[in-house]
């Protein structure tokens, strides 16, 4: 059995999907505790967080979270959303980070032993299979504890292991009484390489603007 010290891990967080899952379960995620949890399981090489962002001030409430993640050990990957009017005249936003996540996962696959995907999106099934063919064990984290499961059945079946987010709640929940630390007191986690990537919007998938922090 592989020792924890030799278990090289990478986290891939689908920001909108994880936020919606935690909100449905009724709790807020403490991203510092989340990072600590997986650092305790092995050598955490990288923790990616993916989200599309609207550039208008109206949607800037996600910015504090993005800034905090960037200063505290996460590799933030973001791109601007695209606005459009649908056939019913309703205003909608488009943005999807699946391609960016998939590219990073494939590039990192040869350097890790375990991929942890925090998403229930069935579109990632093919990515999980491709990473597994490279000898990487894949754990998917979402939930089946809601009235309707928030993880696609095909993704759950493809993963080597499935963890319900409810099982991690006591380890990663944010204390409502806590307040974010002042920006000047935040320091990056030294063992994680920092990178922020901004890529141009190039896809027309629907974006559900659900990962605005509470």
Structure description:
This protein is of the alpha/beta class and 214 residues long. It has one domain (5-198): Rossmann fold, CATH 3.40.50.1010. The protein contains 7 helices and 9 strands, in the order E-H-H-E-H-E-E-E-H-E-H-E-H-E-H-E. A 7-stranded parallel sheet has the order 8-7-6-1-2-3-9, with helices on both faces. A two-stranded antiparallel sheet has the order 4-5. Strand 6 (114-118), helix 5 (125-132) and strand 7 (137-142) form a beta-alpha-beta unit. The longest helix has 11 residues, at 15-25. The model is unreliable at 181-214 (pLDDT under 50).
Average pLDDT level: 82
State the CATH class: Alpha Beta
Order of strands, widest sheet: 8-7-6-1-2-3-9
Rounded radius of gyration (Å) = 17 Å
Give the count of helical stretches. 7
Q: Outline, from the CA principal axes?
A: globular
What share of the residues does DSSP label as strand, in percent? 15-25%
Provide the low-confidence segments as ranges: 181-214
- Percentage of residues in helical conformation: 25-40%
CATH superfamily: 5'-nuclease
- Structural class, from helix and strand content? alpha/beta
- What is the total number of structural domains? 1
Between the first and last Cα atoms, what is the distance in angstroms? 40 Å
């Amino acid at each position: 059995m592989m020792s924890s010290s030799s278990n090289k891990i990478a986290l891939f967080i689908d920001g909108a999907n994880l936020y919606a899952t935690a909100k449905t379960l009724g709790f807020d995620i403490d991203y510092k505790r989340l990072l600590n949890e997986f650092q305790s399981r092995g050598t955490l090489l990288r923790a990616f967080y993916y989200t599309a962002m609207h550039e208008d001030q109206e949607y800037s409430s996600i910015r504090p979270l993005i800034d905090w993640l960037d200063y505290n050990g996460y590799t933030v990957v973001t791109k601007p959303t695209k606005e459009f009017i649908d056939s019913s005249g309703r205003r909608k936003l488009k943005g999807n980070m699946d391609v960016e996540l998939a590219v990073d996962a494939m590039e990192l696959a040869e350097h890790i032993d375990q991929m942890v995907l925090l998403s229930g999106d069935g579109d990632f099934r093919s990515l999980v299979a491709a990473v597994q063919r490279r000898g990487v064990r894949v754990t998917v984290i979402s939930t089946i504890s809601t009235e309707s499961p928030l993880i696609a059945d095909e993704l759950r079946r493809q993963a080597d292991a499935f963890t319900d987010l409810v099982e991690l709640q006591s380890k990663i929940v944010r204390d409502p009484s806590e307040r974010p630390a002042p920006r000047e007191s935040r320091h990056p986690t030294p063992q994680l390489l920092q990178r922020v990537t901004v890529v141009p919007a190039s896809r027309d998938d629907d974006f559900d603007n659900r990962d605005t922090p509470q």
